[in-house]
Amino acid sequence: MAIPVSFWEQKWAEKADIVVVGAGLVGLQSAIKLKLKFQHRKVWVVESATLGSPASLRNAGFACFGSLGEILDDANNIGLENALLLYENRYTGFLKLKETYGETKIGYENTGGYEIFKSNEASIFENIAANIDSVNEKLLNVHQQTAFQLKKTAALGMNVFETAIYSPLEGAIQSHLLYESIRNHALSLGIEIFSGFQVQNIEQLDSQKWEILFSNSNVKFVASELIICTNGFTKQILPDIEVYPARGQVLVTEAIPTLPFRGIFHYDKGYIYFRSLGTRILIGGARNIDFDGEQVMDQNTSENIVNHLKQVITEVIVPGIEPKIDYQWAGTMGMAADRQPIIQKIQPHLHCCVRMGGMGVALSATASEKLVNLID
Ligand SMILES: Cc1cc2nc3c(=O)[nH]c(=O)nc-3n(C[C@H](O)[C@H](O)[C@H](O)COP(=O)(O)OP(=O)(O)OC[C@H]3O[C@@H](n4cnc5c(N)ncnc54)[C@H](O)[C@@H]3O)c2cc1C
């Protein structure tokens, strides 16, 4: 049970002007942009985790914007124009991250990204590849460069279809370096980050003020602007916002000195992703083998998914090799069928920026910018 709050603690808790809930990539960048916009206002971030974040420090570190197959799949749900806009928002978001923090500081490697197919998926490959020229043409104004090319896979040493769809623009980051850069930026601007505060409820005190209540502290924060950036956990605070949690499980193997490839890879319609991490393999995903079981906020791994990912390593990625798994973890994404983020005003002085989907690293920079543009 939380201990009683002192007079002094409560007075301190009322000193913020703007409170952002969630210290993931979106919450921290929103706080930074708010502080830069309203320099005289006190900006605070409250975060339930004591270290890190369920998505921002638990992801795969892909600097990706959407493979050709994913764009076409999105186009079926939200129309081609919206699917291309989402790609553009991710691409420009990643440019902003590189410009603001620098490639070295975020551990960026421009490895290129491959959309690969199972050996028996020739017809799926052909259907997707048939759209390559038209999508490339539409994306030319985004980066003045060809987005997708066909590339032979033989040199990768994998058990996959002979041709991949390659994006020279994609790459990999070191997620902890990006997170650290953004967090340090926030701290350097005087933004306070309070970790270990689990928001249970928010209440409107009057037309100008929100009160923030915690499940593990009796202190009550008060803010004249409240921003919710809780991604897959949003329904716990804002039950009417359409976002559901999706668990993503990740394995990292021991080093494999003979690893024949570098790069990031999208496999099985994007549900499985893997990359080189030095000479290790990082692999994640496979929600599609148990969608219902993976629609949870629980951040433990599960045997069925872990076994499936191990099987893909041994049968597809490095055929015949069964490397030891050095790390395995799970994180939580915020999803919806249409894969679009929600960036909106909910009530006066209450906004949210949530539902970053499976490619929220790059998107976080543009999403937080759009959010801050909504606030006067
Ligand atoms: C396994 C996995 C792999 C991924 N791989 C990639 C990838 O390679 N490339 C890519 O672009 N994207 C990837 N993503 C997605 C990407 O990481 C996310 O879209 C992005 O980090 C979302 O940032 P966020 O700040 O919105 O969410 P989060 O990082 O989840 O931040 C939300 C924060 O809110 C906090 N919070 C929630 N509820 C409360 C509460 N009640 N009180 C206080 N705090 C609260 C959480 O603790 C969390 O820190 C992956 C995600 C996962 C899970």
Walk me through this protein's architecture.
The chain is of the alpha/beta class. It folds into two domains: 7-57 and 177-243 and 338-373, FAD/NAD(P)-binding domain; 112-168 and 244-335, D-Amino Acid Oxidase, Chain A, domain 2 (2-Layer Sandwich), CATH 3.30.9. It contains nine helices and 19 strands. The chain has helices at 7-13, 25-37, 68-78, 80-101, 122-129, 132-143, 175-188, 303-317, 360-373, and strands at residues 18-21, 43-47, 62-63, 113-115, 149-152, 163-167, 171-172, 192-195, 199-206, 209-214, 220-223, 225-228, 244-253, 264-267, 272-277, 280-285, 325-335, 342-347, 350-354. Strands 5-6-4-14-15-16-13-17 form an eight-stranded mixed sheet, with helices on one face. It has a six-stranded mixed sheet with strand order 8-2-1-12-19-18, covered by helices on one side. Helix 2 (25-37) links the parallel strand 1 and strand 2 (43-47). Helix 3 (68-78) packs across helix 4 (80-101), helix 4 (80-101) packs across helix 6 (132-143) and helix 4 packs across helix 9 (360-373). The longest helix has 22 residues, at 80-101. The radius of gyration is 21 Å and the shape is globular. The two termini are 39 Å apart. The model has no long low-confidence stretch (mean pLDDT 96). Bound molecules: flavin-adenine dinucleotide. Flavin-adenine dinucleotide binds next to helix 2, strand 2, strand 13, strand 17 and helix 9.
